[in-house]
Amino acid sequence: MTATADLVPRLRSDLLGWYDAEQRDLPWRRPGTAPWPVLVSEVMLQQTPVRRVLPAFSAWLERWPTPADLAREPAGEAVRAWDRLGYPRRALRLHAAAAAITERHGGRVPDTLAELLALPGIGAYTARALLAFAFRQRVPVVDVNVRRVVARAVEGRALGPAAVSAADLRLVETLLPEEPEEAATVSVALMELGALVCTATRPRCAACPLVDACAWVAAGRPPHDGPPRVAQPYAGTDRQVRGRLLAVLRGADAPVAADALAAVWDDAVQRDRALAGLVADGLAQRTSAGYQLPA
Question: Is there a catalytic annotation at residue 42?
Fold first, then answer.
């Protein structure tokens, strides 16, 4: 029996049993949650931990419970509300998606892959996640956590590749039950297993419901033999400067003069480069009076 064939029945029994008992109570996973909150959560969770997303998610949905509510406001308000979640272009993408959903789909998040991919700022992962988690369809969803679980359980490797490929999607699809609702639950359970148990640096194999069928455990848990995964620095980078400049703009009700922004960062060359980058990315606008969030 292949590793995949051995794993499939355990996904339907052991993994789902584990998920039923151990899953976190996250608002975007609760039964009856509309597709728009699921979309908001998926965009916020990109490269951001759950603990930081939870308060921002609640505040965002309280202010903009529907796509039309967000679309009515300037894009700058989305950037302001994004606060310090990081990677603020995600706020612009959500705003653009909300406008398109309102204009093209009457305010209802579409439920086909083609329509979702046609929305601005919605990539392949987010579209598939919406189909599975919001619309409960049988669609493979592969993020870094799922890819790591599958790399270990099926392929016997410590880590999967850094980028998700079409082959990864096909492999994960072979693990899904045929029934759409059950398949969607398996998808989120795999993700939760990677986040809580099958972690990158300190996997808790003794607590894993798939341990007896795991190819990596059977092989003696060999170490990662690919290129080293190096964390990106933050201190002193243009990204840090952009964050400080944007924090000033978010806190201002009127344009901020260039002289006032000079106090944010001593290196004028780096500061000007970061400010130009914010303008180029649509996160700031230059006016005759200074700089402000986009209108």
Answer: yes
